[in-house]
Every structure is written in structure tokens, then in C-alpha cells.
């Protein structure tokens, strides 16, 4: 942010502060007292406001990204569950159609006895 932009932001903020006060105009003493209370130069104050706005915007973007990621993860898990379900159904149908059968346990017992 260039110095001219900082000064413009600072000037707009100061004018807004003046308009919200009971008196529309402030004398020099009040203006000096206002800057003394804030304990920052106009450029520093504008920079602080700029950083606050930037951090708020970044925080909102991070929240949106996190929410989008959670939705994506939930959709992926639902898709995986559906795929696994149908894969299991398909495998069962294939086994049934080919006529695969598990050997009966009795035949194993007979083999062990001999």
C-alpha cells in the first residue's frame, strides 16, 4: 500500500469519525487529543486498519475452504460406500451365476479321518 493510499484511508477514517461526533467540526486541541489517545500516527493507524481487514478476509476464505473440503470429504465417503456396496452385490451375483459352491464340511472331516 503506497503512502498516498494510506493517507487517503486515514483521511477518510478521520472524516468519518468527525461526522459521527456530536459536533461536526473539532478544534485543533480535540484533534490532537484524539491522535494522542490512539497513540499512533495516521499512517500507522491506516496500516493497522488495513491489516485487520486483510486478516478478516483471509479468515473468511479459510473458513469457506474448510467447509468446501468437509463437503468434498463427505461426498467422497458416500461415493466409496456406494461403490463398495455395489461391488459386493456384483461379486455375490457373479458367484451365484457361475454356481460356485463352498465344499461341505463333512467331506473335510472324512478326509481327516482316513
Report what the structure shows:
- The protein is mainly α.
- It has one domain.
- 83% of the residues lie in helices and 0% in strands.
Q: What are the defining features of this structure?
A:
114 residues; mainly alpha; rod-shaped
Rg is 36 Å
What percent of residues adopt helix (DSSP H or I)?
over 70%
| Average pLDDT reading | 73
Instruction: Label the overall shape.
Output: rod-shaped
How many separate structural domains? Answer: 1
**E-strand count:** 0
The end-to-end distance, rounded to whole angstroms, is 92 Å
Strand % is: under 5%
Unreliable spans are none
Number of helices: 4
- In N-to-C order, the SSE pattern is HHHH
Class from helix and strand fractions: mainly alpha
Biggest β-sheet description: none
Would you summarize the structure shown here?
With 114 residues, the chain is mostly helical. Helix content is 83%, strand content 0%. The model has no long low-confidence stretch (mean pLDDT 73).
